[in-house]
Amino acid sequence: MRLRDIWHDFDWTLFCAILVLSAISLIEIYSATKNSQFEHYAALKQLVWICIGIGLLFIVAALDYHIISEQIPLLYMAGIGVLVYTLALGRTVSGSRSWIVIGPMRLQPSELVKVIVIVAVARYLSELRNVRYLNLEQMIKAGLICGIPVALVAMQPDLGTTITFLPILGIGLLVRGIKPLTFVIMLVCFVLALPISWPFLGQHQRDRITNFVNPEQDLKGSGYQVNQSKIAIGSGGALGKGIFKGSQNQLEFLPTRHTDFILAVVGEEMGFAGVGLTLGLLGFILFRAINTAQTARDELGLFIVMGVFGIYFFHTLENVGMVIGFMPMTGIPLPFMSYGGSSIIAVFMAMGLVIGVRRRRYVN
Amino acid sequence: MQHRDGLELLRSRVSIISYAVVIVLGVLVFGFWQLQVVQKSHYADLADKNRIKEIRLVAARGKIYDRNHKILADNRPSYNIVYVRENSPHSVEQTVAALTTGLGMSAEELTQKIDRKKKDPSYQPITLKEDAGTGDVAYVMAHAYELPEVSVEFQPRRLYREGQVAAHALGYIGEVTEAQLQESSDLKPRDLVGIAGLELVYDSVLRGVDGSRHVVVNNSGREIETLPDEVKPISGHDIYTTLDLDLQKAAEDAIGDRVGSAVVLDPRSGEVLVLASKPSFDPNHFASGISPFEYRLLMDDPNHPFENRAIRSAQPPGSIFKVIEAAAGLESQTVTALDHVYCKGSETFNGRSFGCWKPAGHGNVGMYEAIVNSCDVYFYNLGKTLGIDKISQFALMTGLGRKTGVDLPGETTGLIPSEGWSQRVKRVKWALIDTINLSIGQGKINVTPIQAAWAVGGLASGGRLKQPRLVQPQELRRSGFESPDVGYQTYTVSEDTVETVAKAMWGVVNDGGTATSARVNGFDVAGKTGTAQVVNKSIYKKGSENEDHAWFVGFAPYRNPEIVVSVLLEHGGHGGEVSAPVAHAVLDMYYQKKTGHFNEGTAQKVASLMSQP
Asked: How many CB pairs under 8 A join A and B?
């Protein structure tokens, strides 16, 4: 493999979409944090993470995904090891032992392990050739591949990140094929899961769910954040109040504005136009992933890309839905947009996988 | 080719998923469209409510002065501690818990104040502490960051400089009620409005227009900037009343701790110089939020300190009614001043004996002697001759039993009976003995002190009745308010009648009559005492509730009077003994001021010397 091959058939369109999203993200992270004494350098740090992310994107895209797949047992064991290490010796931030510190960097290993799990699940599913519908044993095996790291993340405990793993498995099973009856049973189980798990949920999680069902009940307490987010977005109007001019953002009415609610800042300062552009670019990336999956040369490539798609489709659905009150509140970041090194690195590496699969789509 | 087919199957499933993406993105974009385009103005309002805080700039109320520009109702700066529930980062319980020590108030007290306003919109500030001390203000300022929902509000507050003096005339103010808010569109919640007295009657003149200032605040309540749309408050108009503070104080001091009232009018203009009612209350208590306990205490006081007795206490006039009756007799030419009656100490009508106050009798008395000595027998006979119709017609004409129209709320009508009234209301036929009783001002007849002053002053002025006013129309017009002219009624009464009655009343004070204690050297004071029986004399006990009401009505000078005084001490005893000295204090002060002998500095010096041990 020659180095200049990297540029051959590189998906520059997708890459440009990512860069534009990153630019919007940097502007609004700066806007959301410029008055804050604690997060003053957030935009600069994010820029560094994006640069690292771009570097990793190129490396992952350059590697043949088959080579990555071959190394997956090793990578998977390493991922489990890091998660165990995190559980044992990680740093606790807002109740979750989910961080490790390496030199100047603070990382959430669970974000990076997602990428490994994508490839691991894809490898397992792609090896089940010519199977029209999965049988129970196969489903359990696939579930375990995904389930072991999920269990470790759930123990941190980090419910939001735990949930984001599930679409890898969900999309994988749907594409690999499950019998319609099995699908219905799984759906029923999922619906029943909520009332059964209710007594095991913490008060904080229950509040979020009741509040989603009835957002007006407690606008000062648990409903405060979503309410302020809706005010920010709604008051932004069609064209926004102007960058650095959003009152909800600048006067700090909006909570966690540079992370989970970054889209509310976009909505307030750039209006429906800015949100439209952001959602358009995210939609383009998702469709590019679907297109890449459909043109992948083999099943491994297809499952890898669909795994990436599953995770980030879910991220987008949940985060965007949350800021306008369509989804319950969770701490799930918006891909490319929310501040945070681990999620940026994970999404850039995942994009590296997509671009890598696309480069090799032609069958000789 | 199995492999290729398998891949095709997977691809077809991927295509199905792409529809899900279209649907999800469509729903999300629709959500943003709803918020940002359809409901934009609603959310823009909410965002403004978040960031813009209105600070109310309370307008100062107009001041109230006496006729010599001495201040009666002033304003002083004060601060309220207010609480706004909207956007509060704390629950009510948390806020209350944080404030109890700082404001020195119990949690129950604070919660009660908040609960009382629970139904108000949450942006409406709730006053937690009125007229807060510097310690409270400092505490709230120091905790502005932790408790952005609590703030200090500046408010000019009423200060009644003289405390209890003229409290019934001035009235007091309080927070606007729900009913008032619905009635008037220019009132806003939490406005202070007049509740009684002049504060109520001239509320629209005195009340200013509040201003406002808008500031941009951040989530912690910190003020970021002030918007340039400040509206300055417009102070209310000052009012110069006709009251004379010196005379008012003289009257109130003379009444002292007794229950009663005094009214002083200028019969030429209707100006009210004194309007005193005792016991009184301190309207300053209302200015800084009277506690429910204090209020109950005042309300439950058996002497009813809130009652404005000068215009509301209607009592039988007793012998002061003889003056009116005498004039009625002369005007109807039923008697002449020279007609004499023999008083042997009592007289029998319809087989029932009516005694004179002097059991030994007055002997042969004409009108002059009858008034000077207040001979009951003379007036029994005059009343019998006149008859109820002529008496009541004349009495009503002079102003008794009618509202004077004074510019204060709650004036009572009193009662001048007639045959028709007796038939209609009491359902009994008017009897001769009723007329006999009425002819000495007893029985079914009630007049208020202001009516007594108005009627006697009007009669002494030759039948000219000027509506009593504490604020003259020209004073209101000066402030740009419309005001009708002072009410003015006249009735025909001959100069001879006026002269005869006035001369006799002069005799009461200056010719060994019943009110020599009202005499002022150099000032021709005329007057008439009255002692109105409360109940049957058999259970008479001095100092008890059953003691007689003591009246005095007087004017000076006795020709073309410029001042008329009426005093009523309830259950006070004999008019000549107790009420005439009160009138004397007022008339003496008036005369000293008029002749330039009254010097405030000297008066104060004397007072301070006397207060020293």
From this structure: 134
